[in-house]
Amino acid sequence: MARKLIRMWPLAMLLAAAAGPTRAEGGFSIQSVNAPFPEFVAAGNSVPIVVRGPSAAALRNVSIRVNGTDVTSLFPAQDAASLAGTVTGLASGTNVISVYPSRHAAKALASVTVTTAVAPQLGCTGLTTLAIPPDMLDAPNDVVQITLAQPVAATATLPAHCRIRGAINPRIGVNNTPFAIGFELRLPDAWSGRFFFQGGGGNDGNIGNATGNVGNGSSPALARGMAAVSTDGGHTGGSAASYGFDPQARIDHAYNAYGKTAATAKAVVDLYYGKAPAKSYFAGCSGGGRQGMMFTQRYPSAFDGVIAIAPAMRVATGASISAAWESITYRSIAPKDAAGSAILSQAFSNADLTLVSNAVLEKCDALDGVADGSVNDFKACKFDPAQLQCTGAKDATCLSAEQVTALRRGFGGPVDSSGQKLYFPWQFDAGVSAAGWRAWKLGTSATAVPNSSFSTLIQDAMRNEFFTPPDPTFNLFDFNFDTDPARMQAYGLLYDTWRDTRLTSFRSRGGKLLLLSGLSDPIFSALETANYMDQVIEQYGPVQAASLARFFAVPGMNHCSGGPATDRFDALTPLIDWVENGNGPERITATGLGFPGRSRPLCKYPTYARYTGSGDPQDAANFECVASSAR
Questions:
Q1: Residue 547 located in a structural domain
Q2: 239 falls in which pLDDT band (50, 70, 90)?
Q3: Which of 286, 452, 455, 525 is catalytic?
Q4: 50: domain range?
Q5: CA distances from 184 to 104, 168, 206 (A)
Q6: Catalytic choice (138, 460, 521, 567)
Q7: Has 286 been annotated as catalytic?
Q8: Does the N-terminal peptide bond of residue 120 adopt cis geometry, omega within 30 degrees of 0?
Q9: With helix as H, strand as E and coil as C, how does 116-158 read?
Q10: What's the whole-model pTM score?
């Protein structure tokens, strides 16, 4: 066995490199402070470690072990409540470093997992002829064709790796149309032992560069030494949903393409490195968030941790209905052109939306202890646009009665003629004035031909995929709220992911689900995600629910990003720490281009970030996560 040595680092340097505090039993914690990623040592076999305890006396008798070998004598005290040093001689692959209450104790107080680089066992270019044993695939009769395998040199942001492209189950479908489940897989020369699935979005239809994009400013998973995969969802043609005429293509896009891509990619990883991934992660937003939710339900053993941002749980049976509801509502009050046709984008001017945003901030901004352009305590924000209604003629300081009625109706969510709710209401938030909100709901077209994402992307998906059978002539503005929802129920059973709030199989194997939603998301209501989390908490209780799923609302954020928000955050590091070390995140520090120089904590729902009353209000350190007084 390689000899373990400890090299002392100055404590200030160790703390500066730390990824954030960890929590454990009795006030003890153990933490890797390796840079840039605490969980992976890309070169060499050493890692700096910090052990903290409630007091010097409590630390005096602890036992620190690396892969079961005691190295306590090499950890002298650094200050009254911490020990620090660098462990060398780490084993290839997975290493577990733990702190125990005493030399003879069998149960660790806290542990941290650190991996070292694993090298490939096969050559990259030869992968085009790789034969995958049938028992390693999703189904033994799956056909996998690897069409490209090329070495890629390291860049300033990505390590050297092998890039492969391939197709699963190529076929000729309806109307003599060729289909296949396309994928790209990138395999780093120095592998961390982890696997990452990069979620898609929209209607998919193209293979994204599988660098392991996590979004929101996070470092790509490939840079962390993870093998990363992406897929086109089983069809080509970009965002258009014209593939919906083919029944198998609809099934592939609902779930089948992702399950087969995950199984195929893991098989290639296993063969390439000579070992299967130790841990597997997924991250995606919007359609990618839906895919993450789908994995927790249909393929609960595929991933240890899932990040689902704007998780698109009710696309066919909820959000698309709301898209029709809002489009019809807002067009009904829009100015008309010379031919008498309404111009949707002009239902509200940018100045009108800024007026609404400012009024929301005036009423709710300071509820979190500081007026800073962000509504953190959203549950306590009770805003009614009626306060902006003009008492006389419409001018720049007020909204017309028709505009107020339309906002109330639109934000209230769709209902049928009997008053039955068909989707969730929407949160009034500062991001209503952002370009991303307008792009989805109103668009920018100066003519009566709308260009909102509701009238293009969502209408196309409804016509060709969500309706059973497809209805290529359907017009979003003719949606019948009594009869048309039934046309989407059949596909919704395959596609939507809101029904399972227990996640029994995913939970039983220790799976972790990290949910995030922008409070100004214009296509998937953040109140839907909050409702999902409420149901998980109701079923399991707060403590058990928090071991399975955690939700973080992002004030001001539009769809996936954008808006007056701290929308840049690293969700993957806390997810890895939660999955591998048991440290569930209570807060995630975020920044954003909308607020230069500012950091804020995103708090675990149902808490919110409240200013402590002292210190720089631009600094996340001066905010605490507290429960809202609202019910």
A1: no
A2: confident
A3: 286
A4: 6-116
A5: 49, 11, 10
A6: 521
A7: yes
A8: no
A9: ECECCCCCCHHHHHCCCCHHHCCCCCCCEEEEEEEEECCCCCC
A10: 0.94
